[in-house]
Input
Amino acid sequence: MKKAFIILGSLVGILFLVLVVYLAAHNIRVPGEAKTLERSIRVDTIYEGGIKDIVFEQKDGDLYYINRGLEQGFTLEALRKGLLNKTVTLRVPNVLAGPSAHIEEMRVGDSIIFDENKTRYYNRNLRSKQIE
Output
């Protein structure tokens, strides 16, 4: 009986450590200057995913998303008109497990389409309208 508790306790401890390492690798950002990475992608498909997320997908299957983008005033129709088949520059978090799919900033040329940290300053004229 005592041996069974030791084995069970060891298994629970190992599972807990695996869970902690997994969560740390996916949620903790890399410190210092390398907090974000820039990616240039061609937008081939735009659709709703998750809970009101806006998903931008490439033909090769890579995808990126704006968290709760539909709640922030964007519409799929306006984004499709303005961004489909165009190349956009994304800034995404660099976590320990590698680049995230979460979009912090999106630009087309010099125009900022979305900035997670400054959404009130951008997009007032871009949301729910065609992006030029």
